[in-house]
Each structure stands twice: as C-alpha cells, then as structure tokens.
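Renewal narrative, Specific Aim 1. Our central claim is that a sequence can be written position by position from structural information alone. The example that follows is taken directly from our test logs and has not been curated for this report. It begins with the structure tokens describing the chain, in the order in which they were read.
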C-alpha cells in the first residue's frame, strides 16, 4: 500500500515536471495545449496541432523525430529536404511530396483531419518550377506558410489575401533568397510573423549573421531546437476569453536603432518576467522588465543613448521559458 502510494506520488511529480519543461508542455497534454511549432534546424520543422496531429516538413536537420507523423510534407527532392527515413509514420500518415503536390503543373489541395494543405509555387535558378513547391497549412486559426526552396517570386503577393500568421522563409542567399529579398517577400505577403529558415547551406543549420541581415518588422527568430506556441495575430489581443497563449520575443523595432528601440514580447500565462539586455561580452547593460506580468503582449522600450554602437543581446525569461534575440545599435 505504501509502495503504491509512493508510485502514485512519483507519477504525479513526473507529470507536473513535464509540464514545466520549456517547449515540453505540449507533449504531456496535447488536448489542452495549443498548436506548436518546433524548428529542428535548416528547413526542417515539426508542428503539433491542438488536436494532437503531428506534422513534419522537409525532414533532414535535428534529432527530434520521436513523435510519429500524421502528415509528412516534402517540398522537393534535395538531400537537405527529403530525409524521410528519419520520420516514423503512423499507419494513417499522409505523405505529400512535390510529385503529389503538383500534378501536370496544377498545384493540389489536400485535407487531413482538420488540417488543410495547399501546394503553392516555389522556384528559382536552382529549383525548377515543376520539381519544387511551398505549402500553406491551415489548422485551428493558424495559417502557416513553408516556402520551400524558392527565390523571390511574384506569386508571393497572392498569399497576402490568405492572411498568413506564420511565414517560414529560406534566406541563405546561395540556393534561396538573400535576407534582403526575404524582407521584400515579407512585404509582399504581409504575414503576422516571419521566421527565418534555411539560413546556411548544410552542414550548418542556422546562421546568426544571415538572420541579423533579415530586418522585416514581422521577424520572429526561432533557433534550432526551440519551440513556439502558435497563435494567430488577430485573436491575440481581443477580450479576456481569447488571451494569447504564445511565448515569444519579437525582433526589436526599429533595428538597427539609434538611440531608442521598442521590444515586444508575449507570455502565455501570468508569471515573474525578466527582460534584460547584455553587451557582446555578456555584461548586463540594462534591465527593462523585472516584475510579475499578466499573460499577453507586452512592450518595453530600450534607450541606448548612453551606450556604444554594437550588437546587444536581449533575453526574455518567464515561467521557465527563455528566448533571446540580437539588436544593433548604430550611432
Ligand atoms: Zn535546400
């Protein structure tokens, strides 16, 4: 009896602990958690929807392929996008590659459970139009665009009407867009958030230097191994019943800046929250927030008038979650 009680207690402790691992929240109770996006590295991502569906796109980088797939998407047949052997697939898994996504030049539409998937154009000098696609996924109130390996193309303007909440844009500047072209792409489609992917040719999986050059106001940096909760921009600030559940630190704006810039961030639940700025040597330069905050969007102002030009790191910590970004003070 005593042992049983200990066992039950241990079990409860385990559940409680899992709930507090940053990004691990969704795995324990997927029906209560929201939709989430994990960047595995390069162009590889894993999405979990609030009703428990697991979607992989362009498997290649990272190691977190443990969850069996309901949906597996491949944008084209290059080795840094089509490592499908990494993914365990449920028997019911729907696999869509560029071959299924574009049939005789016609971009296809798919529905899997509550997820709809539209193939859209993606091409450039390195990727023929008939052998590469991007995808627009809709689920819950999320509209996520994974661009595939594309250049800056006219068709991106067509995505504006779809009110994309999260655009994942490649920007290595060699096989895909330059970061400056990706800024123009973000202007054309006007998404709520733009997440840089495919920032460096393999074996690299992420380039800080490239991401620094990408300056779209919608920029949201999610580094390999990091998970964000997905919320649509429109439900974020309305009424108490639809409080945002998302944890993110937005790129400061303007950036580069002189001397002031503002930093927006969102926390999913009330909690003690700290927003600090460090210089490149890791020395603390400012504490912008250090208090208990309610859930939702918040904004802090950073004044660099007494500081030297250079790169500064801004770090957000709240309820065990951490996110950081870089800002450039140019005098
Ligand atoms: Zn590629």
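The sequence written for that structure reads:
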């Amino acid at each position: 009896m005593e042992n049983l009680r200990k066992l039950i207690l241990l079990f409860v402790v385990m559940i409680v602990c899992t709930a507090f691992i940053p990004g691990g929240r969704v795995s324990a109770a997927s029906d209560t958690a929201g939709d989430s996006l994990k960047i595995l590295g390069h162009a590889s991502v894993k999405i979990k929807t609030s009703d428990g569906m697991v979607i992989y796109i362009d498997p290649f980088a990272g190691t977190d392929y443990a969850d069996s797939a309901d949906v597996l998407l491949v944008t084209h047949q290059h080795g840094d996008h089509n490592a499908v052997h990494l993914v365990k697939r449920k028997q019911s898994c729907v696999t869509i590659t560029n071959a299924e996504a574009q049939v005789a030049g016609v971009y296809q539409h798919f529905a899997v459970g509550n997820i709809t998937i539209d193939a859209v154009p993606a091409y450039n000098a390195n990727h023929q139009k008939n052998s590469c696609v991007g995808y627009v996924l809709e689920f819950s109130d999320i509209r996520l665009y994974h661009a595939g390996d594309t250049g800056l193309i006219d068709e991106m303007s067509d995505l504006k009407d779809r009110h994309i909440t999260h655009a994942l844009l490649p920007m290595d500047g060699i096989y895909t867009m330059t970061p400056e072209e990706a800024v123009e792409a973000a202007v054309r489609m006007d998404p709520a958030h733009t997440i840089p992917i495919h920032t460096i040719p393999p074996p690299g999986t992420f380039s800080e230097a490239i991401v620094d050059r990408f300056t779209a106001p919608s920029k949201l940096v999610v580094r390999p191994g990091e998970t964000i909760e997905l919320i649509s921009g429109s439900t974020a600030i309305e009424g108490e019943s639809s409080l945002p559940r998302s944890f993110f630190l937005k790129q400061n704006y303007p950036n580069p800046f002189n001397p002031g810039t503002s930093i927006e961030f969102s926390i999913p639940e009330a909690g003690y929250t700290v927003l600090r700025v460090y210089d490149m040597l890791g020395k603390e330069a400012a504490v912008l927030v250090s208090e208990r905050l309610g859930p939702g969007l918040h904004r802090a102002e950073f004044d660099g008038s007494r500081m030297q030009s250079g790169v500064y790191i801004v770090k957000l910590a709240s309820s065990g979650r951490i996110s950081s970004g870089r800002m450039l003070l140019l005098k």
